[in-house]
Specification:
- The protein is α+β, with helices and mostly antiparallel strands and 185 residues long.
- It has one domain: Muramoyl-pentapeptide Carboxypeptidase, domain 2 (2-Layer Sandwich).
- Helices cover 41% and strands 10% of the residues.
- Strands 1-2-4-3 form a four-stranded antiparallel beta sheet.
- The protein binds zinc ion.
- The site of zinc ion has 5 residues, from loops.
Length: 185
Amino acid sequence: MSLAAIAAAAIAIGVSMSFFNAAGQLPGVDRADAVPVDDGETGEISLTEPISPFDDAHVAVARLDPALREAVQSAASDAAADGVELLLTSGWRSADYQAMLLRDAVDEYGSESAAREFVSTPEGSRHVSGEAVDIARVDPALWLEQYGSAYGLCRVYANESWHFELATTPGTECPPMLADASEAG
Ligand SMILES: [Zn+2]
């Protein structure tokens, strides 16, 4: 297979995944099943030390959906040319780590329903399936909100300016935002 054919195939896969995300289906189910989640890795990233989307020695990056990882990397390269540094505070997370974050949020917000506006269940989280990234700091997140659709990347929640997923075909408009993570199921 020629390099051009491989590239074309990769683009076709990326586009179809974006299509399924935009249609609100569950593209992560098969992938999540394939990811080894019980090996003790959590994917935790220190809030004070966000990591580069090119840091694929970190499981938070290594276990991302490859199409998402590539999209974030190309956005990060273009952002860098604009003098904006795109770094991640979260990428892939283990189901156990997601469950812990939800328990912490229930403690913090006082109820499961309040917590669910900010933190998904292990079953529902797009981080656990490797299909979401959180961007460090306000200005880089705003850059990605403005330019992300060129890469298929969209802010999906009105109350989370930092959380992005592949949610549109690159170069087309992002779908309307959901109010919060509790609407994603
Ligand atoms: Zn997130």
